[in-house]
Design brief:
single chain; alpha+beta; Cyclophilin; eight-stranded antiparallel beta sheet
Length: 226
């Protein structure tokens, strides 16, 4: 069992850079009202760095789903999660069943590199994170998975983080061909796109601002178990 004892901030995030191979947090400032999404509250557990690993260990045994669908206005992205990264798979399934991702955005696009989702400037998303808890996940980079095109990976937090502890609320999908292999060993690849790379490509080609945010907000309408 790995016990994590960290002081962390409310908004986790990632910022994988092709130039310096780093991951940083960026606070979203773009404002736009969105429709409130249903959030499933679970008062039986409030996750933190001390209880998240035993919780996900047990959760992974009882929740074995490994396929999810990300629904956007451009189409669906179907993803198969790797069972050999059990904590990251279980975390994504847990957040999906809690409907955390519904109403968040693909808030960062780096042309020819990645699309990044799971964050939002909405009060609803902040409330969801507060309800679920503040925690980070240990990296799981030695299972043989590389950052091929279409791989979904988990970024690390911006805090003083030499061990690349992962930000659990966000994810990025590699759009680069044949892959972004300089990320191997730094971030945890925990799944891959099995259908819908055309949607990933379309999002990756959208116009962005200087902060690498799409000019028009790209909402994740829902993430569902497939």
């Amino acid at each position: 069992m790995l016990l994590l004892s960290l002081v962390i901030i409310v908004n986790y995030g990632c910022h994988p850079k092709q130039k310096n191979n780093s991951v940083k947090l960026r606070v979203i400032e773009k404002k736009e009202s969105i429709k409130k999404n249903t959030f499933i509250k679970d008062k039986s557990i409030h996750l933190n760095d001390k209880n998240v690993i035993p919780f996900l260990f047990n959760y992974s045994k009882e929740n074995k789903e490994d396929k999810v669908r990300i629904i956007t206005k451009f189409g669906n992205i179907d993803i198969k999660l790797f069972k050999k990264t059990p904590y990251h798979r279980a975390n994504f399934i847990y957040l999906t069943k809690k409907k955390y991702f519904d109403g968040t955005m693909f808030h960062r696009v780096v042309p020819g590199f990645i699309i990044q989702g799971g964050n939002s400037d909405s009060r609803e998303s902040m409330i969801k994170r507060k309800e679920i808890g503040r925690y980070l996940l240990p990296p799981d980079t030695k299972k043989g998975y590389s950052h091929h095109r279409g791989v979904i990976s988990m970024p690390s937090s911006e805090i003083n983080n030499p061990y690349k502890l992962a930000s659990p609320y966000e994810f990025f999908i590699v759009q680069q061909s044949p892959g972004a292999y300089h990320l191997d060993g730094k971030y945890t690849a925990f799944g891959k796109v099995i259908k819908g790379m055309n949607v990933v490509d379309k999002i990756n080609q959208l116009e962005i601002d200087k902060r690498e945010m799409p000019i028009s907000n790209i909402y994740i309408r829902a993430v569902i178990i497939d």
